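Re: that backbone. Tokens:
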């Protein structure tokens, strides 16, 4: 029987090679899912490395170390914070945040104030702006022509990466199930 010339032949999808094949209908979807997770992991790791390098470059432009710059940005964005909260927002250990705050105080960008047991780190906004604004302005000017993506697209990417935390629940479920491939 001849095919109609306007109806193209359906070709099978390319086969993946990411694991054993049992021929069950769900195997392909599972393998594609694993391949996608691996791709997301690679891209996220690359993005994290680039982000670290960007922060280091911005910090150097501002005459600061990366940890100081992270703390300075968190303080400017969120206002007075405990050192523990500042550490969490900056992705630092409490000890690293303490050292960064010590250096920010020496630069005149932050001051500790409060009662013992409840000390807050306060940003000194004029000094913070004087340090960070030239580097951030340079970033904005350089970034805009380089990207085809708008802020909405970047917000969507951030939301999708945050949604990826649902994988933690999946990992728990998979660990709780009996090992299927040990026999």
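Recovered sequence:
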């Amino acid at each position: 029987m001849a095919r109609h010339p306007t109806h193209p032949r359906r070709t099978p999808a390319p086969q993946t090679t990411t694991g054993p094949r049992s021929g069950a209908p769900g195997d392909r979807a599972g393998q594609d899912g694993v391949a996608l997770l691996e791709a997301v992991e690679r891209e996220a790791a690359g993005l994290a490395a680039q982000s670290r390098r960007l922060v280091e470059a911005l910090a150097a432009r501002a005459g600061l170390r990366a940890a100081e710059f992270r703390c300075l940005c968190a303080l400017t964005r969120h206002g007075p914070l405990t050192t523990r909260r500042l550490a969490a927002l900056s992705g630092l250990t409490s000890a690293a945040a303490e050292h960064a705050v010590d250096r920010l105080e020496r630069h005149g960008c932050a001051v500790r104030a409060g009662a013992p047991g409840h000390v807050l780190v306060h940003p000194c906004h004029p000094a913070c702006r004087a340090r960070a604004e030239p580097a951030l302005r340079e970033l904005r000017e350089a970034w805009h022509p380089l990207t085809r993506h708008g802020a909405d697209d970047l917000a969507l990417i951030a939301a999708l990466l945050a949604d990826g935390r649902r994988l933690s629940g999946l990992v728990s479920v998979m660990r709780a199930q009996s090992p299927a491939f040990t026999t």
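Residues 65-151 form a domain with the Arc Repressor Mutant, subunit A fold (CATH 1.10.10.10). The chain has seven helices and two strands.
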